[in-house]
């Protein structure tokens, strides 16, 4: 009897050791990701804007040396030169006010201005599209209006950002402690039900957004600039800064973010951004996806698949397999003890 009990105990012990070993192996795969690198760079002055209160700063597509911007509450957009002076002012007939602006790049070198008034709590917002002017001489924009609807109810305000690597335009809502990221349809119709697609939730407030040429998403929060590897990726870098003005943008080469001081005619300061992430991981033999002009797009579903598979990736899957195998071995040992002991 003592020998039988001893062998049974050995079988149970082997099973317990197998479980413990498998859980130890799986632990690193399930651990939280490393925290984002945090730094406090010293911003360098770039220029002082001629406008009293510029908001978004978006590099031009057709004009590499121009910045597109607007003044909140007014229905016009401006082109600023590299020195901050106003190069041209364009009115937008039928647009009462502008609070968000992005430039979608086309494969022919031209761009499309996408803007609208996103302020206030709404379930539907009106966006406007106009071709980027070929000549910066001022005048009127040929504007088309589109109604876009949130898929999940009312949201408050937001910013626009266009990914030049994919040609997709995103709307990011404004909240006190969080933000929602939504993708515009691949094609907008003036009489169609243009429904936004929810991409993700961000656990922090967003006050400005811009993409780099390689697809990194740079977000301005109330106290920092946060860099994400992509629109669905985690934060990789947090850059602390003291600028409190409304204007924010990223240079056309993706190397610097511009943040504004407070006050009228604010000074714009440059903050160096960390190196590319998506570009480094892309196969050098694989050509970058060509952006498609917003005006020429055909309706198509937005491919934003949810992550699938077993938790923990390859390591987690291997640990689970080890758990099953060791459990089987423990059970075999237990049965073997019973047969020889009984």
TrEMBL record:
The chain crosses the membrane at residues 314-335. Residues 274-309 are annotated as: Disordered. It comes from the Bacteria. SUPFAM superfamilies: Thermostable phytase (3-phytase). Residues 1-31 form the signal peptide. InterPro entries: WD40/YVTN_repeat-like_dom_sf. The keyword NAD does not apply. Keywords: Membrane, Signal, Transmembrane, Transmembrane helix. This is WD40 repeat domain-containing protein. The lineage of its organism: Bacteria, Bacillati, Actinomycetota, Actinomycetes, Streptosporangiales.
